[in-house]
Amino acid sequence: MPKPSLKAAFDAKKFIVAPGIFEGISTLIADGMGFDCLYATGFGTVASHLGVADAGIATYTDMVGRVGRFAQMAKTPVIADADTGYGGLLNVRHTVMGYEAAGVSGIQLEDQEVPKKCGHTPGRRVIPAEEMVLKIRVAKEARRDPNFLIVARTDARTGLGLEEAIRRGHMFDEAGADIVFIESPESEAEMVAIGRAFPNKPLLANMVEGGRTPILPAARLQEIGYAIAIYPALGFLAAAAAYERAFSHLKAMGDSNALPAQESYGFGRICELMGFPEVWDFDKRWAQKDAAE
C-alpha cells in the first residue's frame, strides 16, 4: 500500500509533528499512533546500532540498511537523516539514490564539514555555502520521484551567527531544497526571525530536550512560520531512562518481581507488537496441512 504523500501535506499547509525513531520497536510504536511523518534520527540510530557518539563515525553502509528497514516496517512516511551525504558530490548522489530506493520519503543533508557532529553539541564547522548548494543541486538531480523531499540543513548559526545561517537558508532554497532547516537557533526571538525570513518556504524546527533551541508548542511554531517539528531525541531519551530504572531495580532487588507495572510494556503486548499472533497462526495452519498429508 503506497504511503501518504508528505509533499501533499506540506502543500496543504498542514503542520507536521514527527517523533524520532531509531530502531524497530520505536518505529512500530510510533507508526501505530497516527503521526503524519516519522523522523529517522541519526543520533539515535548510531547510538542504538554502534553504541557511539553521532560524530561522523557511522557510514552510508551503516545507515542505509537501517533507515530502509524503518521505512519498510512503517506505513507512515519517513524522513531520514543522512548527515553530509557521507562525502562529496558523488557520495551525495549515491546516498540520495540509495535512500530513495530503500523507501524513505525524504532525506536530510547538512552543510557541516566531515566528520560531522550532532547539531546540538559544540565544535561543529561548516563547509562554504557554495559547496552545499552544489550538494543540493546534485540531490535534486539524483532523485527519481519529485515527491521525494530534500531537507537542507545549515549548522552555521552556532559558529557564524544567525544572519549567515539565514543567508545560507535562502541559498539552499534557491538551489531547490524542499524544506529549509536552520539548526540550533538559541531563542524564540531567533526562531521568529527565521520564520519571517522564509514566509513562503516550509521550515523545520528541531525540538531537542535539553538542546540549544527552546521547545515551543506546535501552535506557536506554526504561527511563527514553521511547517514541521521533529522530536529526534524524545524516544531514545525516554528509553534510556526506562532502561536505567528497570536495571537499577534489578540490581538492587535481585529480581524483577516488584517492578512497578507501569515500568514494563508487558510480554503479551510486546509479542503482539512484534507480530507473534501472525506467526502462531502461520505455524498452526501449516502444522494442520502437514498432519493432513
How is this structure best described in words?
- The protein has helices at residues 6-11, 24-31, 42-50, 60-73, 89-102, 129-142, 156-160, 162-175, 188-197, 218-223, 234-253, 267-273, 276-292, and strands at 16-21, 38-40, 78-81, 106-110, 149-154, 179-182, 204-206, 228-231.
- It is globular.
- With 293 residues, it is of the alpha/beta class.
- 49% of the residues lie in helices and 12% in strands.
- α4 packs parallel to α5 (89-102).
Instruction: Indicate the structural class.
Output: alpha/beta
Record field, number of beta strands? 8
Q: Strand order across the biggest sheet?
A: 6-5-4-3-2-1-8-7
Principal-axis shape equals globular
* Order of helix and strand elements from N to C terminus: HEHEHHEHEHEHHEHEHEHHH
- Measured by DSSP, the beta-strand proportion falls in 5-15%
Average predicted confidence as pLDDT: 93
Helix content: 40-55%
> What's the end-to-end separation, in Å?
35 Å
Tally of helical segments: 13
Low-confidence stretches: none
Q: What is the CA-atom radius of gyration, in angstroms? A: 21 Å
* Main beta sheet: 8 strands, parallel
Strand-helix topology:
Blueprint: H1 6-11, E1 16-21, H2 24-31, E2 38-40, H3 42-50, H4 60-73, E3 78-81, H5 89-102, E4 106-110, H6 129-142, E5 149-154, H7 156-160, H8 162-175, E6 179-182, H9 188-197, E7 204-206, H10 218-223, E8 228-231, H11 234-253, H12 267-273, H13 276-292
Parallel strand pairs: 1-2, 1-8, 2-3, 3-4, 4-5, 5-6, 7-8
